[in-house]
Amino acid sequence: MIFNFTRKVYLDNNATTLISSAVTKAMNKVLKTHFGNPSSHHTLGYKAANLIAQARSIIASSIQANHKNIFFTSSASEANNQVIHSIVSDFEARQQTLKIITSPIEHMSIIATLKALEKRGVIVEYLTIDHHGHIDIEAAKQQIDAETGLVCCMLANNEIGSIQNIQALAKIAEQQGAFILSDCVQALGKIDINVNQLNIDYATFSAHKVHGPKGIGAIYVKDGAPLTRLIQGGDQESGFRAGTESVHNIVGFGQACKAIPYLLKQSSITLSLKEKLKQEVIKFNKNVTFNAEQSETLSNTLSMRIPSVDKHSLMAFLDYYDTSISSDSACCSTNHSASHVLKAIGLTDKQANETVRISLSAQTKMKDIQYLVKKLSHFFAAYNHNITLLGPNSIDYNFLNDDNNYILDIRGKYERLLMKSIPNSHEHHFLNYQEVVNTLNKEANLILICTSGMKSMLFAYQLSHSGFQNIKVLTGGLMAWKKAHAKLYHDLAGTNVIKIDE
Ligand code: PLP
After folding, report:
1. In a shared domain, residues 486 and 402
2. Does any ligand 1 atom lie closer than 6 A to the CB of residue 206?
C-alpha cells in the first residue's frame, strides 16, 4: 500500500473547502472562452469586465452591500493587510499616533501585521476574551476610547468557532470615532451577514472557504472609510489594487456566493451532525472536552480536547484511514508553538497540544460522522501502542552514537535541500514506503525524522500497520532538533548520511 490521497472523509473545511462543480464549470468557461483582459477595449475585454461586474454584484448582495463597495484582492490575508495599512496611511497623513484594538484570537494576517506595525510606532492593545472565546463587551467599552483609530474583531473564529457580538462592538467603535474591521472569512455561508446591520466599516472574505477557488478574496468598504492601495501599478479595482484581475477566480467566487442561501439553509443539518459527533465521542471517552461549545459557536466547527492524547498522533492515525481533520489554523501548522487562539481562551501548551479541530461542511453526511466515530473509538482502544514520541533534546551525542538506533529521514528530495539531516541518518523518501517495509527488520529501533514531525507521524502509522514494533517519532522534526542542538547541528548536520533511495 502507498499513501492514499483520496479522502474518504474530509472534515477540515475551515482550512479550505472542496470547489463545487458549478464553480469549476463557470471557471473553466472563463479560462477557455472569456480570456480577454478586462481592461482591453475590444469585445473580449468588455466581456471579461462584465463578468467581473456580475460577480461583484453577486458577492455584494450576499452580504447586503452595494457592488461599488466591494474590492477584490488575492486573498483574505491581503484584504486584512490592505484595510489595516489604509488606516495607518490615513493616520500618517494626519501625523496622528494610531491606536489599534484587536481581539487576541484574530487570524495571523491581522495579528502578524499588527505586530510588525508596533515596531513602527502603532499602539496595539488586545481585547479581553472569556474561556469560550467571546469578547467581554463591558471591558471593551472601557478600552476603546477616543484615541482608538481601528478596532479589529472577526465575526467567527476559525479554530474554535466562537461568534462575536460585532454589532455591540461596532456601536462602541462608532461612539469613539474609530473604524471597525471584521474578518468575516469563516462566517460567510454559515451566518447570514448583513454589513449594514452589523454597522461595520470593513469586512473581509475568502472564496476558498465557501467552495470557491483559492487565491481570491474581497473587502467590503463602507462609504467614507479610507482605502489605500497596497499594490502600485495600474488602475484596476477603481485604482485600489493594481494587477490584471484574476477573472476566472473572480467568476468562481461569484458563482460560489450564489450558493450562500443554500449553505445557510444547510447549517441546521450541519449542527445536528456536530451534536451527534459530540454525543458519540463522549460515550467512549468521558474525558473529552469541547472548547467554546457552551456559547454561540459556528454550526460546523468543533474544537475537541482529548486529555493525554497528542493531536499529531490522532491526526496521523485518522489520515491513515483517509480522514482529514486538523489541529489549528492551517497557515500556522508548521509553527510548533501552541495555537494563540487556544492559549487566549486559557488552555495550557499541553492542553492545546491535545486539541484537534473538526470542521464540517454542507457536504458532510451522517455516514462521514459515523465513520469518524468508529475510527476514533479504534484510536482510543489502541492509542500509540507501538509509537513513541521523542523530544528533540533526546537526540544527543550519545543517542547518535548508539548503533541500535536506525534514524530514518523520510523527507522529500527538495525538503532535504533546505535543511541538512541529523548525522548518521538514512534517507528514505516517504513515498518509497514499500521499500522500507521490504528491507528493514520489523524489530528495528526506528527513529523517524522529517521537517516538522508531521509526515513522520503519518509514516509511523503506516509502519505500525505493517508490523513494525519499535517506532519513535521526532516531535517537531528537524526544525525542533536544530533549535535544541544548535552546536551539534552546526558541527555535524549532514555528515555520514546514508542515501538509500536516490
Ligand atoms: N481569516 C480567517 C478567519 C481565516 O480562517 C483565513 C484562512 O484560513 C484567512 C483570514 C485567510 O484567508 P486566505 O487563505 O484567503 O488568505
Report:
1. yes
2. yes
Rg (CA), the chain: 25
341-345 contacts, C-beta under 8 A, 24 or more apart: 341/105, 341/133, 341/157, 341/158, 341/159, 341/160, 342/159, 342/160, 342/291, 342/303, 344/104, 344/105, 344/129, 344/133, 345/105, 345/129, 345/130, 345/131, 345/132, 345/133, 345/160, 345/291, 345/292
Closest atom, ligand 1, to C-alpha of 216: 15
More confident position, 392 or 226: 226
pLDDT tens digit string along 453-484? 878 888 888 888 888 989 998 988 898 899 88
Q: Is the CB of 117 under 6 A from ligand 1?
A: no
The answer to whether residues 350 and 400 belong to one domain is no
End position of a domain, from candidates 351, 381, 411: 381
What gap in Å lies between CA 252 and CA 19, rounded to an integer?
9
Cα 241 versus chain centre, distance: 25
Overall domain count for the chain: 2
Strands 217-221 and 202-206: antiparallel
